[in-house]
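Exercise: predict the fold of this chain.
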Amino acid sequence: MNCQTKFAAVLFAILVIFLSASCEKEETQLSPIHTIYAPGDQEFGFVVGEKDGRRWEGSSYWSRRIDDSNRINLFLETFEQGTGFERESLFIGNLLLLNGLYQVIPRNANDMSPDSHQSSYFLLTADGDAVVGGLHIDSTRNNFVIIESVDSTTGNITGTFELYYELDGIPRLSFENCRFEARQLE
């Protein structure tokens, strides 16, 4: 083998190693929806559980629906460390302010019955007011919220949930073994 052929072979080997190393680095980098963000100040409540199998914490609160004061919407949020800007927002809507098991279904304009409980996941950017993308409930999974206690004196509610989100029929994100305590945001 002449000198030029050896040089070309060594250069090719270095190029292959460099390309395979850079590909591995990309595969291990988490996408923004799989990143674990900071929980925030948790002034009105907390949520803790597993996001795609990793420990996850956030802030929580609830508010009454404008059109039905017997029903509430639950909000679960995380924030960017350092800036405090909101990064994730989970919305669970149309829950009764009563203990019980609530099956969560995908949003569907054709099924807006009073008993349909729905949820969406939003990823936010900039200073927390720009939506990057959203995911919807995966209808092939068992999605639920259990309200375990309602304290009418303090306004605190506690419970657990498991939610699975998808985009275009492809599973994207799971929240499992989650528990929350939330107070009304007035």
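Check your answer against the key: The beta strands are 45-51, 54-64, 71-79, 86-96, 100-105, 117-125, 130-137, 144-150, 157-167, 170-182.
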